[in-house]
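Case study.
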Amino acid sequence: MAALSVLGVQLARAILGRSTWLELLGLAYPLGSGVLTWLLFILSWMGLRITALSVAATAAFALAGATWAAENRRRQILQSATDRRRVIREDTGGSSVQVGLGLAFVVLMLAALAISIGRSYAAYDAMAGWALKGYGIAASGSVLAGRSWGMWGLNYPLNIMLQVATFRLFGGDLLPESKLLFPVYLACVCLGIFSFWRRFRVAPALAAAGLMLIATNPVVFIHATNGYANLPFAAILTLGMLAAIDGVLECDPRRQIISGLLLGIGVWTRPEGFLYVALIAVAVAAVARLGRIGRVYPLAFTVPVVGLSVPWLLFALTHYELDPVWIQHGDTAVLAITNLLRGISAGGARLSTLYLIVKLFLERAMLPENWGAYLPVVTCLFVLSAFARRTWARMEIPYLVAASVITIALPVALYLVLSIHGLPDFVLVLRRDFDRAYLPAYFMTNVLAITLLQSRTYDQDPSAPGRPRSQTGKIARSEEAHPNERGKAWG
Amino acid sequence: MLGRSLSPVKLATAIVLLGVLLQVYVLYSDYLSPWGRKIWDLRARTALERSGFLSPWFGAERTEFLSFVRENTSSDAVLLFTEKSGPYSWRPLLQYFLFPRTIVHCTDASLAACIESDLGDGGFVVRPEGGPQPEGIPLSARFVEYRAEDRTGLYQLSAHSGSEEPATGIP
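After joint prediction, the assembly is written out as follows.
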């Protein structure tokens, strides 16, 4: 896990150049693990046997390459006088509230790690899907073994399974230590969100409190410890969306590359990933063009997304199987995608089903034991934002609104499509599964609600990490930037 | 408008902190405390045993039986289950608990045919729920007993297990 995190840090350093340690920590594990498992998948598809030695060699080559690139990048930055003027300072504030909340966050993450390992794999999908396939791949040395072990055949992306396989190969997964990865994704997304808030001048105490609000939510905590892929997927997607927003607003192609990598890893983590990524890409491009806010470098964003997604989608197309047993078990993701076109051509879902989905979610969201204080707090924050200065005029807000709307609408649409299939226990499936499908929306609505209450300008909060010009409402042109930094080559 | 001393940001911070307090209480009372106690009680168990004890479907009895199966079969064994419903009919879960053994399902009615086609020498017919001995078990099969009172255990097929002659006299 440490090696994968170092790989992620070096990749982020190589691409971004300088960054804050908070930002690097947030990106480290999702980026490093996603890139390594993707390399292992490609090599295995080409016929290389997955063993401890081949995994170690692949990781070592990737790490050496990323370190070399990161060092080159560091030297480039040092040679640039303009970059020296743009020293990015990070500051977590230092107030007692923030330090206290930071310590509480660390304690909570340690508790999540202990509970996650202590529970082992005890939920159905975790045992019969994510863990078992990883063990099967480790035992046989090929990703094709995923067909014989557990549910779903080879329909589901293999990012999490290959991570479990790596743990199995190196330590036997006796604890099981692969369960560490789920709380780590939660910690990473929390750090990434906190870093985003600080870059967009959210007050330190509010950002720290928001971090704890996200991490202590019961549904989120359950999914950080139960071994499902939904939380890792939501974390990767959220980090990718935030990097996209930041990169477009800063007119920074390198940050858009990071976003493309993360969103590509999102496609490589869950089957509905490509739907999210396609909609997010369209939304970001539309907001940038129609609102004339920021600048999209199409190649910087699409090359990594396509590079990571297309091999998997080709593999999935050639190895896809629809098993009636999975239909009986209400395999929502596969079913929803399989029936998408059929549902649309059949005339769409009924409005009453939409009402049912919203009603059931609101019922669950109002119970503290499910969604904690999420709905009341976010509602209060939206109301308060009406009193904050220039809230809706800020550049990041249209992007955050678009991302929130997509992440709310997409799971609802997927369940509407699923309802067309006429599952007899649709309400049961909805009660059981909708919460985890809502996780990306949970993160994005929290990010939006708290970013709306940013009230500081750069002058009022010079301690925050630097974001040139993005608060002014104008496009952040790169007059300060080193020529190598800005992406003429990126479209 | 809100007054200068009570800015929206300060009010928002207070609301968020209240939310955090509520969630910490819920998290501790509903999740951390009960899960912590359960996990502490199972701290000496292996990961697979904790999976079974903490999963809603298996529980202590089934988990102990699957541990018995693991202890009495080699890792490359082929195991045949005849259950039509319940956790013992869920192949992915049995694959997880008995990894890396091969799991085969078959109905009691076609047991002889399944033994002929799916089980090689040294394969096992697993009887987790007890009951009368199924028809189709070869004479040469050896019964490895788990619990005498309900005749649960394993039938291990010998080198001549392909015989269609039914077994008699096996306990």
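Observations recorded in class. The radius of gyration of chain A is 22 Å. Confidence is low (pLDDT under 50) at residues 81-91, 468-485 of chain A. We will return to this complex in the next lecture.
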